[in-house]
């Protein structure tokens, strides 16, 4: 529900972007921590876009989780701050866009 809601807020349909397997893996790797869910989803969307893959599947999620050294059995750390500043969100967005541009340039 959280992922679908975030996609709708961003202007998407909220459904069909991630396979059910991917959603289950996101939950497993993030342990339900919203900040980690956001991180996994953002990176998975960037990867899927760059690789021209739809929908985002569990293989992509596992790859992203491995990149960030997240595993289903890792201990849960302190919960991240619930409120992120607008500047922080903008910085993350620009970093994500820069990563997409770099991957697309490499693909050419």
Notes on the structure:
By secondary structure, this protein is mostly helical. It has helices at residues 2-9, 20-30, 34-50, 58-67, 86-107. The chain starts with a helix and ends with a helix. 17% of the residues are buried.
Distance between the termini: 37 Å
Roughly what percent helix?
Answer: 55-70%
If you compute it from the alpha carbons, what radius of gyration comes out, rounded to the nearest whole angstrom? 14 Å
Low-pLDDT stretches are 74-83
Helix/strand order, N-terminal first: HHHHH
Q: Provide the residue-averaged pLDDT.
A: 82
What is the percentage of strand-forming residues?
A: under 5%
Structural class: mainly alpha
Number of helices: 5
Give the total of beta strands: 0
């Amino acid at each position: 529900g959280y992922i679908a809601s975030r996609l709708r807020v961003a202007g998407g349909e909220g459904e069909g972007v991630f396979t059910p397997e991917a959603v289950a893996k996101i939950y497993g790797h993030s342990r339900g921590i919203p900040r980690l869910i956001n991180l996994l989803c953002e990176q998975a969307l960037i990867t899927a876009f760059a690789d021209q893959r739809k929908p985002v599947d569990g293989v992509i999620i596992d790859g992203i989780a491995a990149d960030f050294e997240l595993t289903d059995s890792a201990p849960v750390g302190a919960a991240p701050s619930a409120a992120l500043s607008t500047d922080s969100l903008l910085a993350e967005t620009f970093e994500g866009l820069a990563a997409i541009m770099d991957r697309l340039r490499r693909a050419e």
